[in-house]
């Protein structure tokens, strides 16, 4: 057991009734006061911000990322817990995981019920996250929720309201939490952590466009005209669209826009199977398939690549590294990083 730093960012776990709905307004100490602290654990709280997670921006997330690294610069810290809204938790956790290269854990948690709810799930989730942060090592960034432990990579919000809100639809969870202990079932496969990105004055725009029946390139073109440097195409099936979308993707990638290909299907990998606008043609047009990563995390991978490199080839190498693909030794993403 040991010293755990809790970074508070808001979300439902910090939310109270505002007259017409709930919104985050509680400080981290108020959130901590609701939870039982595991025996032998000492807690320090960092109040970073208190917002509903749909309002988070890239600037918020990069601030969180840098705060995590600043906290871990202290060798006496044994682990970190991040309290976070559930709506975009999967994105922030994956961003931190991509840049995490430390055996000490960073554990994200939150709640589906607000701070003052008599039967709220926040206190139990926070206790479990503290226990995980104090007792595990070498698992990367984690999500502790409803007695279950998940790897950040691949984990998404699977239920809008239910307590068992998170999981990886394409993979098994990392472990279970209960009876005062964490039971680790497996160790996740993770690429080496990337260096911290810089903080450019103008952060890159990355948009998501979903394919559907009757879809045309209108929204994709609108994103590009708005200045998007990265696009996530949320395709159908195993990663399929139309010849018109393929043409638009080819035009975008020829201009240096980084395009990632995912699917709106909950589980399973993107695959190059079909032509006539399918995955075969989209990949040939320059789209990078994202395996089992879904839209929100695919966008974070693209964002990370744009922040790490300036040329199209370097950005694609970093993207593929973030996706867990093998990167040749002479083309390691570190060569493309923007210094912290």
From TrEMBL:
Catalysed reaction, written as an equation:
L-asparagine + H2O = L-aspartate + NH4(+)
Q: Which residues cross the membrane?
A: none
Instruction: Show the active-site residues.
Output: 12 (o-isoaspartyl threonine intermediate), 12, 86
Q: Which Pfam families match?
A: Asparaginase (PF00710), Asparaginase_C (PF17763)
Superkingdom of origin: Bacteria
Q: Could you state one GO biological process linked to this protein?
A: asparagine metabolic process
Ribosomal protein as UniProt keyword = no
Indicate the segments forming the L-asparaginase N-terminal domain, all copies.
3-188
Which GO-annotated molecular functions does the record name?
Answer: asparaginase activity
Q: What is its EC number?
A: 3.5.1.1
Keywords assigned by UniProt, alphabetized: Hydrolase
| Family of this protein | Belongs to the asparaginase 1 family.
Record protein name field: asparaginase
Organism, as annotated: Streptomyces lunaelactis
């Amino acid at each position: 057991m040991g010293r755990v730093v809790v970074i508070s960012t808001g979300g439902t776990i910090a939310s109270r009734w505002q007259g017409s709905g709930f919104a985050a307004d509680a400080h981290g100490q108020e959130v901590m006061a609701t939870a039982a602290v595991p025996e032998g654990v000492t807690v320090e709280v960092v109040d970073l911000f208190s917002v509903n997670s749909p309002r988070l921006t890239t600037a918020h997330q990069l601030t969180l990322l840098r705060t995590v690294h600043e906290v871990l610069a202290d060798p006496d810290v044994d682990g970190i817990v991040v309290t976070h809204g559930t709506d975009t938790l999967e994105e922030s956790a994956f961003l931190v995981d991509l840049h995490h290269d430390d055996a000490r854990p960073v554990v994200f948690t939150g709640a589906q019920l607000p701070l003052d709810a008599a039967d709220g799930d926040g206190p139990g989730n926070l206790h479990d996250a503290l226990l995980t942060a104090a007792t595990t090592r070498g698992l990367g960034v984690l999500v502790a929720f409803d007695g279950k432990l998940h790897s950040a990579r691949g984990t998404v919000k699977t239920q809008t309201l239910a307590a068992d809100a998170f999981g990886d639809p394409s993979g098994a969870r990392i472990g279970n939490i209960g009876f005062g202990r964490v039971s680790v079932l497996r160790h996740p496969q993770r690429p080496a952590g990337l260096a911290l990105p810089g903080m450019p004055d103008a952060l890159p725009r990355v948009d998501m466009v979903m394919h559907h029946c009757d879809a045309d390139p209108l929204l994709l073109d609108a994103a590009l005209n708005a200045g998007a440097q990265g696009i996530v195409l949320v395709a159908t099936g195993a990663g399929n669209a139309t010849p018109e979308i393929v043409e638009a993707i080819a035009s975008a990638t020829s201009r240096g826009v980084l395009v990632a290909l995912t699917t709106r299907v909950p589980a399973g990998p993107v695959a190059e199977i079909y032509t006539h606008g399918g995955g075969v043609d989209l990949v040939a047009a320059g789209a990078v398939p994202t395996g089992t990563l879904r839209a929100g995390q695919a966008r974070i991978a693209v964002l990370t690549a744009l922040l790490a490199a300036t040329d199209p080839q370097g950005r694609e190498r970093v993207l593929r590294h973030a996706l867990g693909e093998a990167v040749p030794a002479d083309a390691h993403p570190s060569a493309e990083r923007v210094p912290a």
